Amino acid sequence: MHKVDLSDDDIEMFGRAAVAALEQAVAGRTISSDQMHELYEFLVSSKIVTLVGEQEEPAIGEGDEESGEVERTTGAPTLQGGDEDAVSPPSALSPPVPSKPGTRGNPIRAETPEDIDRAGRRARRPTEAQAKAGNYNKGHLKVAGMDIAIETPKDGVRKGKDASGKSWRVKMPVHYGYVKKTTGADDDHVDIFLGPHVGSGVVFVIDQIDPETGEFDEIKTVLGARNEREARRFYAASFSDGKGRKRIGGITEMALVEFKDFLKQGGGREPLAA
């Protein structure tokens, strides 16, 4: 039986019984964290899975014909439809348990620096395999309605290899992650640096370029900086080769409302500064 590929946050949200049931349901295949969420929502919304405890209780006298007793099952879900004689899996899906703040199922509504820090503490440094798959614990939060995931918290270490194979590592000056449901020039999410001044109401969009060729690479965004100078400082300090400032091809200040509209319209694939 294949294991369902989930992080600790997902297992906490759905419960181990739910994970076991899905492993049984998809035996022979592997499903990802996102597929787990989609499958669970589909099963519940289509009433393929319902909670017996939420169904109407049978009237007195509608139970076992011989004993006259009513069988009561509380909280245990059952699979609907199909063979009437089929036995429901003993570990059938249970409702998601309340998730801890900062997890995927319970993002923190960030209005203060402390809120962002709390979300950042949920992020865990991934193994190489987890980083490649993108399936590891992140800090989840909402800022002005935007869904954001923190991959590396402030003072956390990012590391990797450059195009030549040389290893690099850097201690992050601020929280770093991405805006969900967006796509940048690299076909990944639009990256974002989160400074402490979350109430500033402005976002700085940086056109990142190759420091050697000057060619456009992708956009990087900075939220929580008081001004452009601070945004440049946050960005430049996130590189270990001393070429952070050379990577800034242009920078555009946008009101938060304008930035959200920019993302909704698919912005992020092209340089923004004139």
TrEMBL record:
Pfam families: InPase. Coiled coil: none annotated. This is Inorganic pyrophosphatase domain-containing protein. Residues 111-120 have a biased composition (Basic and acidic residues). Residues 128-264 form the Inorganic pyrophosphatase domain. It comes from the Bacteria. Residues 59-68 have a biased composition (Acidic residues). InterPro entries: Inorganic_Pase (IPR041595). Residues 59-138 are annotated as: Disordered.
